[in-house]
Amino acid sequence: MDLIIRSAALKDLPAILDIVNHSILHSTAIYDYDVRTMEEQQAWFEQMVLNGMPVIVAEQEGKVIGYGSYNIFRPKIGYKFSVEHSIYLDDKSRGMGVGGRLLGSLIQRAKEQGLHTMIAGIDASNRGSIEFHKKYGFVEKGYLKEVAYKFDQWLDLVFMQLLLDDHY
């Protein structure tokens, strides 16, 4: 089964929406409470395209099984060379190398755009994601205690960083 990593298109939004809404409802990978609507997801996608930020999908046998993106880390001009990325997979596609292929593509695109650093904000209880990022050269740079609240509990956030100039 061949895995294709490609730029997302409008036709991929229903699958992307299903994946992100599942994460909202069932995980602390994203700190949103309410599922997104198709209109919200389309507005997000259009803004990403307008800003020149990538949205990519992993496709297998014609089905989108994951997606990734990045955007400027913070909305101030001084952060224009720093991006924060996100990768989400459907439940059946975890542990198959899909996330690594998406991350590798995002890293390559960031380097091609002349960006300097990529940041991951990860729920501290998600040890799998933290270890995954370490495999790709990310280093833990910050730990923020009880900065979010979801599922009737306080959540800690870990920031990890990859300096793109040092990554080959």
UniProtKB/TrEMBL annotation:
One family name in Pfam for this protein: Acetyltransf_1
SUPFAM superfamilies: Acyl-CoA N-acyltransferases (Nat)
Domain N-acetyltransferase residues, every copy: 3-165
Keyword Acyltransferase carried by entry: yes
CDD domains referenced in this protein's UniProt entry, alphabetically: NAT_SF
Keywords, ordered alphabetically: Acyltransferase, Transferase
PANTHER family according to UniProt: N-ACETYLTRANSFERASE, UPF0039 PROTEIN C11D3.02C
Protein name, entry field: N-acetyltransferase family protein
Source organism of this protein record: Dyadobacter sandarakinus
Lineage of producing organism: Bacteria, Pseudomonadati, Bacteroidota, Cytophagia, Cytophagales
